[in-house]
Structures are given as C-alpha cells and as structure tokens.
Amino acid sequence: MLNDLFNPLNIYNVMKKILLALVAMTLTLGVYAQGPQRGERREFKPEEMATRQAQRIKEACNVSDKQYEQLYNLFIEQGKAMQKQMQAGEGQRMSREEMQKQFAEREKAIKAILTEEQWTAYEKMQQEQRQRRGGGPGRQGGQRPPRQ
After folding, report:
1. Is 8 a member of any domain?
2. How many DSSP H helices and E strands does the chain contain?
3. What is the CB-side half-sphere exposure of residue 124 using CA atoms within 13 A?
4. DSSP secondary structure, 80-139, as one string
5. Which of 18, 48, 63, 84 fits as disulfide partner to 67, beta carbons 3.0 to 4.6 Å?
6. Residue 88 within any structural domain of the chain
7. pTM to 2 decimal places
8. Widest CA span of the chain, in angstroms?
C-alpha cells in the first residue's frame, strides 16, 4: 500500500488533479472580480457622474473654479432628478421628445455658465464625442457601430 502511494504514476495523477482545481478556482475568481457583466447595470451615482461630466468640461473648455462648481451643481441636480425617475420606473419609459426637451434645457443651462469661447470649445468636444460614438443619437437603423 505504501508503494502505491509513492508510485510516480499515482503522484502524477494527484498533481494533475490539484493543478486542474487551481486553474478552475483562478478562472472562477477572475469572473467574479470583473464586476458587472454585459446586461447588468452598475449602480447609478449622481455625484460620480456630476464629477466626471464637470471635469471633462473643465479640461476641454478651461473653466474657472466657480464655473466648475456651477456645472457640478447643475449635473448633481439633474442626476438626482434622473435617479428619482429611475427609482419610480419612469426613466425607462421617457419619450424621445421628453429626452430632447431635457437635453435642450441642460444645454441652455450650460451655455449660461460658459463664455462664448468656452461654449465653442464645448460644442467641439460634444461633436468629437458624437463621432467617437458613431454619429450620436438617431443614427441609421439604431445600430451600434462595430467595435474596433
């Protein structure tokens, strides 16, 4: 019986099973560590979204600290309103016209905060973002552009 335990063929089989178990655990942990998968939604946090949007405009348009704070407050206000709609179930059923109306109101508020020169830089940034997304909203057929 002791000879069977130290048989090189038996040791090889045990090592193979241990290695296979380690590979399986590594793959399983890797899947869980990736976070939300396709089709899953991350938690919507208005503060993070407002910071990201205001920072993007600050970098692209060279806004002052006061303007940054105004933009941040605008985005926080809109983000919290959007969060309320989503929690009430209204966010998924918003009509295209309503979305366009909210977008126009947002653009009007941003324009009131920025100078003419900054507004021009903002419009340029928006245009570049639309091109990267494949033409922005309303592209033909509603299809996403192919990934590169």
Report:
1. no
2. 6, 0
3. 9
4. HHHHHHHHTT-GGG--HHHHHHHHHHHHHHHHHHS-HHHHHHHHHHHHHHHHHTTS-TT-
5. 63
6. yes
7. 0.59
8. 88
